[in-house]
Amino acid sequence: MKLMTKLRILPAAVAVAIVLSACSSAPITTSELDGARGDFVAAQSNPAVAANAPVEFKAAADALDRANAAAAQKESLADIDKLAYLAKQKIAVAQEVTKQRQAEANVAQAGRQRDEVRLEARTAEADKARMAAERAKADADAARQQADAAAASARDEQAKAAALQQQLNDLQAKQTDRGLVITLNDVLFNVDKAELSAEGMRTAQKLADVLAQEPKSMVLIEGFTDSTGSSSHNLDLSQRRADAVRQALVGMGVPGNKISTKGYGAAYPVAGNTDAASRQLNRRVEIVLSQNGAPITNRR
Amino acid sequence: MNTVQHKVKMICGALALLGLAACASEKTPATADVAVSRAAVANATSAGAADLAPEEMKSAREKMMRANQALAAKDYKLAQDLAAQAQADAQLAQSKANSAKATAAADELQQSIRVLRDEVNRNSTPQQ
């Protein structure tokens, strides 16, 4: 029953369709088709699209062609819209694929960039380590040089002290509670005179050298005679002999304010005054050296 | 009169046969198109389009559903139209998802390079 009604209206419907399609003559478009055309132009003017998504772009172009053809052949607005919609979606696909490929290229390039930065970082670290090592080496070298210099200076000091000791030994210096005592005996003076002999001057020079090495030292020169002669003569001679030594030392550069003198005459003999030898021993000048500069106590 | 009516009936019948034949020949392509669109929607889903291109996926699924309904109702032209649209939407959804993932990866990489560069600059400042 239904089939029969369908068969009856079918020819009529066909006739109506033919009439309708013949009516419109102006070129038609729809807003959907205009939109699709606009999207296509945008995609076409972007060189990245043709470069990155040529296949998808071609499919979009074909879809737009079909929609344009439908419009040219004045097909139904609904049909044009359907084709325009498909074209629009395909153009959007081409755009998205372009974005994706660009991002992938970005990743590839960024991967290389990251490797470069990592290499930079490792090089910078290596440089830093090398510089630190160089600094450490320089510090170590400087420390060693300092230690060497200190050792050399210590050796120098030792040598100087040894030399000084040698000089003092040479002068037969004796350590007493008043200080170091150097005795100049009688032969260093001319007989009964207060002039230093040549050997006396040599001894004074040795003493001057010792004093030059120990500038803090204070010196007390004490003169003594034997018991022969008057006490006033002996006091005078002993004082003059002490002064002679002082003068010699000052002449050799020892500062005068460091040296004091005293004559004791026949007092404080060191030997018996009974024979020539012992008397000679008493005829002497004693030089007391206070090496640290402390004042020298007088004899009681 | 009888022969004319008979002839018209025959022409109508022929036309009907043609129509039926045309209709029948549309069923296979329509079914194929719907199957292709279903596959396209599945691909888009597995590319993560549900999160990354939700609007296009929603549109694709809706049109798939209506295409199936049209197929069941034997409206093959409608089924084909809807299937074609669903396929286009699904392809767009998938390509959007892929480009979103690629862009995110590129941004992350650029960020990590920036961080790395900052570290290098910090470490290479001369020490006093």
Task: Give me a quick take on this structure.
Chain A has 300 residues and is α+β, with helices and mostly antiparallel strands. Chain A has helices at 2-23, 31-44, 47-52, 54-72, 77-170, 198-213, 231-251, 276-282; strands at residues 174-176, 179-185, 218-224, 259-263, 284-290. In chain B, α1 packs antiparallel against α3 and α3 runs antiparallel to α4 (76-123).
Describe the protein's architecture and organization.
The complex is a heterodimer of chains A (300) and B (128). Chain A is α+β, with helices and mostly antiparallel strands. Chain A folds into 2 domains: 27-129; 164-290, OmpA-like domain (60s Ribosomal Protein L30, Chain: A, 2-Layer Sandwich). Chain A is built from 8 helices and 5 strands. Chain A has helices at residues 2-23, 31-44, 47-52, 54-72, 77-170, 198-213, 231-251, 276-282, and strands at residues 174-176, 179-185, 218-224, 259-263, 284-290. In chain A, strands 1-2-5-3-4 form a 5-stranded mixed beta sheet. In chain A, strand 1 and strand 2 form a beta hairpin. The model of chain A has no long low-confidence stretch (mean pLDDT 88). Chain B is an all-alpha fold. Chain B has a domain at 26-107. Helix content of chain B is 91%, strand content 0%. Chain B has helices spanning 2-46, 49-52, 54-72, 76-123. The mean pLDDT of chain B is 85. Classes of the chains: A alpha+beta (300), B mainly alpha (128). Chain A binds chain B through residues 3, 6-8, 10-11, 56, 82, 85-86, 89-90, 92-93, 96-97, 99-101, 103-104, 106-107, 110-111, 113-114, 117-118, 120-121, 124-125, 127-128, and chain B through 11-13, 15-16, 19, 81, 84-85, 88-89, 91-92, 95-96, 98-99, 102-103, 105-106, 109-110, 112-113, 116-117, 119-120, 123-124.
